[in-house]
Design goal:
globular; binds geranylgeranyl diphosphate; 68% helix; Farnesyl Diphosphate Synthase
Length: 312
């Protein structure tokens, strides 16, 4: 299996993937394409394009686009098409971060090691920068290259993504329940709903939509969906743990806020150790779910393991 690194450069898959090097090269590939796809800073009205680029290029691990690229590799997808989906996923994710940081939501001053978008550009422009990123993401998706016969596939991808971010177990649904349970007692069921929806749904869509775009067999779509769902939930559980254990330098944002704001988190309900155990178990189940991919699932397996042990 070949893993694409910088555009035009290919890393040969080895038995034991160096995950740090892999993440770094894939991140560079994603960033190059984000830069190409986003409107330039000097395009009128300049302030909105500066705000959009400020948040997108503030840092970020690019986990969702990297998962989309790895899933595509695993099922034989086309790189040029998939990278456009990958960038759309990152724009939607960044949009969710900008809105999540607003005073009306989590009210954060720092994100990705920088002042949040509304702190630099004001609330009005930050709201519009989020909206702008979402609009641009959907524009990118509709412009994925392909002949007329490919349109049905694009609609299926769009549908998968709209479902992932909507109000029926999508990102918005998870954020709503997160918001309304703040400071209140919450059940295990509500907690899993929040995490699977506000974070899991977009991660699940990253691998699932990538398989749809690659026109992969149903068997592969299904196993990647299960993989994404489990990895996505594990990702948010680790995020909760890092909020308890991480530092501002590692996280690029203020730790400890979940406790102060009495958020519904895994450590609050189960404690840190049990939560860590749950995240590890979910990742092992995710890895088992993609057994059908054989050697081609190597990068996805390593990405899943990285997600359970990450420190940032
Ligand atoms: C419909 C997309 C959308 C948004 C509107 C504001 C909102 C509704 C949802 C917020 C959802 C949210 C912020 C969930 C938290 C997800 C999460 C774990 C963020 C951190 O992700 P990382 O660690 O961050 O991948 P980086 O900075 O590395 O990209």
């Amino acid at each position: 299996m070949n893993l694409r690194a910088k555009p035009g450069k290919v890393i040969k898959q080895v038995d034991f993937l160096d995950i740090s090097a892999y993440l770094e090269t894939q991140r560079a590939t994603v960033d190059t394409h984000l830069d190409k796809f986003l409107p330039p800073e000097d395009e009128y009205p300049e302030v909105i394009h500066r705000a959009m680029r400020y948040s997108v290029f503030a840092g970020g691990k690019r986990v969702r686009p990297i998962l989309a690229l790895a899933a595509s590799e695993a099922v034989g997808g086309d790189f040029e098409r998939t990278v456009q989906l990958a960038c759309a996923l990152e724009l939607i994710h960044t949009y969710s971060l900008i809105h999540d940081d607003l005073p009306a939501m989590d009210d954060d001053d720092h994100r990705r090691g920088r002042l949040t978008c509304h702190k630099v550009f004001g609330e009005g422009i930050a709201i519009l920068a989020g909206n702008g990123l979402m609009a641009h993401a959907f524009q990118l998706l509709t412009e994925i290259p392909g002949d007329a016969g490919f349109s049905a596939t694009k609609i299926e991808v769009l549908n998968g993504l709209c479902r992932a971010i909507g109000t029926q177990r999508g990102v918005i649904a998870g954020q709503v329940v997160d918001l309304v349970t703040e400071g209140k007692p919450f059940s295990a069921r509500e907690l899993e709903y929040i995490h699977s929806s506000k974070t899991g749904a977009l991660i699940e869509a990253s691998v699932y939509c990538s398989a749809v775009l690659a026109r992969a067999d149903d068997k592969y779509r299904r196993c990647l969906k299960t993989f994404g769902l489990k990895v996505g939930l594990a990702f948010q559980i680790v995020d909760d743990i890092l909020d308890v254990e991480g530092s501002r330098e590692e996280l690029g944002k203020t730790p400890g806020k979940d406790t102060v704001e009495q958020k519904a988190t895994y450590p609050a309900l189960y404690g840190v150790e049990e939560s860590r155990g749950t995240a590890h178990r979910l990742v092992e189940e995710a890895i088992a779910a993609i057994e059908c991919l054989g050697d081609k699932g190597g990068a996805l397996r390593e990405l899943a393991r990285f997600i359970s042990i990450r420190r940032f």
